[in-house]
Design goal:
The chain is of the alpha/beta class. It has a single domain, classed as Vaccinia Virus protein VP39 (Rossmann fold, 3-Layer(aba) Sandwich). The chain is built from eleven helices and seven strands. It has helices spanning about 5-20, 25-30, 50-65, 80-90, 105-110, 150-170, 195-200, 210-215, 230-245, 245-255, 255-275; strands at about 70-75, 95-100, 115-120, 135-140, 170-185, 220-225, 275-285. It has a seven-stranded mixed sheet, with helices on both faces. Helix 6 (about 150-170) packs across helix 8, helix 9 (about 230-245) packs antiparallel against helix 11 and helix 10 (about 245-255) crosses helix 11 (about 255-275).
Amino acid sequence: MNATTGADRAAAAAAAIRHHYDAGNDFYRLWLDPSLSYSCALRENGDDTLEVAQERKLRSHLDAVGAGNAAAVLDIGCGWGAILQRLSRQCGVARSVGLTLSAEQAEFVRSSDLPGVEVRLENWVHYEPDVRFDGIISIGAFEHFARPDDSPAEKIRVYREFFTRCRSWLNDGGMLSLQTIVYADMRREDASAFMQQEIFPDADLPTLAEIAAAAEGLFEIRSLTNGRLDYAWTCEEWARRLRATRAEAAGIVGEEVVARYERYLKLSALGFRMGKIGLLRLVLAPYGDRLFARPGVRAG
């Protein structure tokens, strides 16, 4: 990756994340579940609460990477630390590292005082671990890696760099659990300008084909599911909770921001319901011998 281009991309990504996620922990706490999971829940039946469905989602990612038997796990895009908390307190993982671009989120995780957990305000592009991991989890970060002005070839190049790094960071037998929103029955040219400019600036969704092309030869896709209806329901639940606490939310971030989030959640739910966008959950296993190891990274 060109150093100047890479630095520009990283700076733009950090600014975009701050624009969205640094609205304030108190604001998000009003309408997310207690784990502060800001990603698609995993629903099994109509009786599920948001809390139950989010806990099931977290457990599915932990199980996918064998967290119960892991010594070291990396969480790329760790949010407010729901996965890190469970790695530390439930799974007993000796070392967990979380990467985030949100200062609010990083400080929140650090204040939780989780044994064995390190949170870094750092882009995966710049991260250089000193150990390898038994598992890597990334929930809701992949959709921020590419930019709207990237060509399809450039998007695949960025995604392949991500998969190449993840491959080199994993121990033999390690697994990657990835969850991302994708374009489905919609072209990128038809994406909402409101979403791209006001909600997630400087970000562009991947397609399944781009993910598969980027991972080819590096990772085998062991499982793939589309949870778009789960995400429609999740967005609807978030919107319902935000409406119920609207006055308090407006007192924290202002009426304009609340209205913007209400519109964003409504449009997102509609997009998932219509199949315009999808929600992919992938479990990937590294191919073959470690052909892509980076110098300075020792087995952990």
